[in-house]
Each structure stands twice: as structure tokens, then as C-alpha cells.
Design brief:
By secondary structure, this protein is mainly alpha-helical. It has two helices and no strands. The longest helix is centred in the C-terminal third of the chain and has 35 residues.
Length: 61
């Protein structure tokens, strides 16, 4: 049970870190680093994708 809770907390913090940065590239890099810390290479890929998605969503039209 503690492993699931720990994974959930780390995932939430990684997603929160995706919002850091001013450009899409910075958000993707921050997400990738946070994801790598949480879940290794797979987490880096997911964090980078999440950072890119957040950057695209926040881009002014």
C-alpha cells in the first residue's frame, strides 16, 4: 500500500514540475528530468510528453 501511495505522490509532483519553465522546450525538459527521477527512462519519456502538452496548452493563440 505504501508503494502505491509513494508512486502517486511522486507522479503528482512530477506533473507539477512540468509546469515550470517559460518555453515549451523548458517545460518538456523539466518534465523529462522529473519523470526520470520518478520512473527512470520510461518516466522521462512520459514527463517530457506531459511537459510538451502543458506547454502547448498554455501557448497563446
Amino acid at each position: 500500500m505504501t508503494r502505491i501511495l509513494t508512486a502517486a505522490v511522486l507522479t503528482a509532483s512530477a506533473l507539477a514540475l512540468c509546469a515550470c519553465g517559460h518555453t515549451i522546450e523548458q517545460k518538456a525538459a523539466t518534465g523529462a528530468v522529473a519523470g526520470a527521477v520518478v520512473a527512470g527512462p520510461v518516466g522521462a519519456a512520459v514527463g517530457g510528453a506531459a511537459g510538451t502538452a502543458i506547454g502547448q496548452a498554455q501557448k497563446p493563440h
